[in-house]
Amino acid sequence: MGDSVGGDGARGTLSDLLPTVAIRLGASADDWRAAVREAGDALVASGATSDAYTGEMIATVESLGPYIVIAPGVALAHARPSPAVHRAGLSLVTLVTPVPFGHRQNDPVRLVIGLASPDAEGHVNALATLADFIADDDRRSALLEARDAATVRDQIAAYEAREALSNVKGE
Description:
This protein has helices spanning 14-17, 32-46, 51-64, 124-135, 137-145, 149-170; strands at residues 23-27, 69-71, 74-77, 89-99, 109-116. The chain is of the alpha/beta class.
């Protein structure tokens, strides 16, 4: 079956795509560009992207606006697939002080999730799981209150285990 993160990335779980090195808690950012840069730097640190992808994520917001602010206080920083993406990956950054992105309803942002995908479809499963995970106010609050990367990973692993169990029971 091969590596669940490599290739198309379609089978990658959040746990697979979000290594400890890509989690940054309590980061400081003066503006939305710095917040996106933090998420991009974490993707680079994980080996998922090169520095060029961070610039592409910022350029996407400059070009298309703050549509990446997907929920109150949450931005999903990403860009189109490009040669700067080495493999599918996620990063997670919490900010000490929320920053405005220019979104009328969901500003300011305190949680920035970076998403890198080598192709347009490869991240669909992980993105759906991520959306469900952060849609829950309690889970989102727990992420924001986490003190270390291990706690974040434990929260995600527990969620994935519950989901896997409910999927088995539902079949």
